[in-house]
Amino acid sequence: MPSPRIAITGLGFVGAVGAHVSALEAALDQERSGLGDLTLFSSELSREYPVGQYRGDLQADFARLVRPLSAREAGRLSRSDLLALVAAAEALQMAALPDMARRNAGVYLGQSVCGTLSSENYYLDCAAQAASHGRASPTHLDRLFVHDGANSGDAIAREFSMGGPMASLMTACSSGANALGLAAARIASGQAQVMLAGGADSLSRIAFLGFASLGVMSPEGPRPFDAARKGMCVGEGAGMLVLESEAHARARQARVLAWLTGYGHSCDAHHLTAPHPEGLGAQAAMKQALADAGLAPSDIGFVSAHGTGTLDNDKVEALAIARVFSTRAVPVSSTKRYFGHTLAASGAIKAVLCVLALQRRRLWPNLGLQKAQDDSLDLVTQARPAPRLQHVLSNSFGFGGNNAALVFTAGDRP
Amino acid sequence: MSAVVTGIGVVSALGSGVEAFKAAMQQGVNACAMHEFERMGGAKAIAPAYRAVAPDAKGLIDPRKLRRMDRLIRMAAVSARQALNMAGLQPERGDVHASRLGVVFGTAYGAIGTTQEFIDSWLKNGQRHASPLAFMSSVHGILASQVALDIGATGVNLTLSQRDVSFEAALSSALSQLESGRADAILVGGADELTGLLHEFASHFRYVESGPTAGCDPWGGEGRAIPGDGGAVLLLEREGGPRRALARVEQARVARHDTGREMLDDLNLAGVDLVTSCRGGSRRAFTLENGRSRVLAKRLAAPELSHRGNFGNFPTAGALQAAVNVLMLQGQVFAPMAAGRQRQDLVAGCRLPRRILHDAASVTGLHGAYVLSAV
After folding, report:
1. How far is it, in rounded angstroms, from Cα B288 to Cα B361?
2. Cβ of residue B186 closer than 8 Å to a chain A Cβ
3. Which of A32, A111, B112, B118 is the least buried, fewest Cβ under 10 Å from its Cβ?
4. What are the pLDDT digits (tens) for A192-218?
5. Residues in chain B closer than 8 A to A169 (CB atoms)
6. What is d(CA B163, CA B235) in angstroms, rounded to the nearest whole number?
7. CA-based end-to-end distance of chain A
8. Pick from A46, A18, A19, A29: nearest CA to A234
9. Whose CA is closest to A66, among A81, A87, A51, A36?
10. What is the overall mean pLDDT for chain A?
11. Model ipTM?
12. What is the spatial distance between Cα A215 and Cα A206, in angstroms, rounded to a whole number?
C-alpha cells in the first residue's frame, strides 16, 4: 500500500524579526535582519557578537492567541516553552482543526537548548551564594523543573489537549527538521492522522558562550557563503507546522499549503563538531530525501541551505550541494542573517519559509553576501520570482555530524 | 512489521555486562548502597542510591576514544558494544552496511555533569575562556552521535528526551525507523547519570529517600524512590536476519495519559501474560501507579512486576527493565520476587512469560508502553 501524502495545513513562527508568519514574510520581503544586541542576560561578550533575540513579550503573545497564563503557570514555563507555545498556537489556529482531530494529534518537537536559560540562572545564583557565604541555599531549585527536554512538547500537549504520539528530538541543530521527518513517518505508518511538529530554542548563556568558545561566532553577524565570512551568530525562535494525512485534510476540506514529500537523515560518524570534509553525510541525507520524494535533483527549484556562515559548514555544504545537484544547477539561499542560527528551531523555521516560497513562488536573498566563497552555487543575491517553483529542498545539520534534509512540494494555490 | 532483539548490553549498579546483570537478577540482588554526593557550595551528603559501576570497556572501546567520553557516554557506548558482541555483529567487518546501522538513545537529563563542567569553566576562568570540549560534549544529541562515532554507524541517529519514558520514546522511534525501511539494524538504548546536582534537586523536592534504606520498595508506597543511574541497549533488527532473535518487539507508543485518551487501546494485548511497570515506591507516584494497576487488571489477567528494587529508579531505568524482559522471555531470568516487596495478589500464578506488556505511566503525565514477545 503506498504511503499517504503528508499535507501541511498550518504554520507558526516566532523569531528575531517578530512573532507570527506575517512578521516573517514582512522581514523577508523587506530584506530586513532582526539581529541586534544581546539584552536577555548579561555577558562580557554581549557587545562583541550580535544575536537573533526575540524582542516581544511572549506571555502577551500567548494571551492574545490563546489565554492569559497565571503567574504559577508562567513560572513553570521556560523561554523555550513559551516560544514553542506561541508558534504552536498560531499553527493550530491556521489549520483550524476540529476538536476531535486535535485530541488525537501528536506532538513532535525538536529542541537543543531547552530550559537551560532557567536552570543556568539557578546554578549561577547558587554558585554566587557559595562563593560569598561558603554554602548555597537552593532557593531556585524550581527552575530545574523546566530544564529537561520534554517540557516544551509536554506544555503544548497539555495546553491543547493533544493525546497522540509524542517525542522530543535532541539532534542539536537538525532537531527541528528531524522532528518534522519523524512526525510525517507516524502519519505514513497510520499511527496518527494529524501531527504538530517543529522546533523551538531560546537563547542561553550556554549556547552563546559555547559557540564563542569554539571560535565560530562573527562580530559582524553571519554572511553565509561569502568569501570573507567570519562565522555565525546564535538566535532564538520557533517554527511549528501542522501535518495531516492527505485523506484527513481533504475530508475536512482544509487548504493544503504544501506537501512534505521527502525526508533524508544520516550521521557523519566523523567528528563531534566538524562536518565530514567531503560532506558525505550531507550528500546522503539530500539523496535520501530526493529518493523518498521520488524526485530527481533536476526537479528541485530551490535549496534552502543550512548556511550558518562558519568557514567549515559553508565550504562543505556548498561542496555537497554541488555534488548532488551539480555545479550552479539550482538556486541556493541561507536565511541565517535574518534571524541568526536558531539551533533546534532552525530546520522548522526553514520549513515554514519553504512553504511560503512555494505559496508565493518567490525566493528570498541570501542576506550578507558580497562576494561568493566560490563559483559552485547559484546563490540568490536578490529576491527572485519563481513562477514554476514546484519542489524545494531544505538542509539542516547539527553537532555530532547529524544531517537532515526535507523536500516540500507545492500545495493548493492561495 | 515486527523487529527482533538480537543483542543486549547493560551497565548498572548490578555490574557491567549482561552476565553480571543476569547473575545479579537471578539472585535477586538489591544494589542499593550509600553514596557520597557533592552539594552546591562543596558540602557533602551521604545518601542511598543505585549508582552504576564503572563501565568495563576493556576489549570493547579503544582507550584513546574512551578518554574523550564522559561518564554518561561511556555507559552508553560500552552497553552498545556489549549488545553488538552478544549479537555477533561487527560493524568494522561490514556485517551491516554503515548507512543501514542506526543509533537511537533516550536520556532525560543528557550529559548534565558535563554541562555543569562547562558552566564551571567560565565561572572559574572567565567567559572568554570557557571550555570548548565541555561545550561540545554537553549537547544532548551527542549521546547517540558519540556511540555512532565509536562504531562507525552513519545511518539513523537520534537522541530523544521524554523524562521518565525517554527509553520507551527511543524504542518507539527506532521501531518506526525499521518499519519504514530506513535502517536494517538499530542500537536503541537509554542512559542517565545521577550527579550531585540532580540528587540535591530530587532531595529538595523529597522525591528521594535521604536516610538509610533497604532500597526501592515498588509496592510500599510509604517511602520515596531511591535514585540510580546506568545505561542499557538493545540491538533491534528486522525479523528474518541471520542473527539469533532473543525476543520480538511488536509495538511501542508514547503519549500523555492525562488527555482522556487511553493509549493501550492502540496496542494488541492478546496473549499478554505478564505486565512490567515503572513502579519505584515513591509516595508521590503511588496513587497514579495503583490507578494504572487497576486499569491493567481490568484488561488483562496477568501478574505485574517491577524490578526497580534491583537497579533503582531513574528516568531511563526502563531500558534496564527492557533488558530484564528480554532475559525473562529467554527463560534466563525469572524473578517474580524481585527486590522490594511485590504484591502477592499481583504476582500469584506468575510463570515464565511468553508475551510482556511494559506499561510506564509517570506523574509527569507521560505514558510509554510496548509489547515484547518470545520468538
Report:
1. 8
2. no
3. A32
4. 999 999 999 999 999 999 999 999 999
5. 158-160
6. 22
7. 31
8. A46
9. A87
10. 94
11. 0.96
12. 14
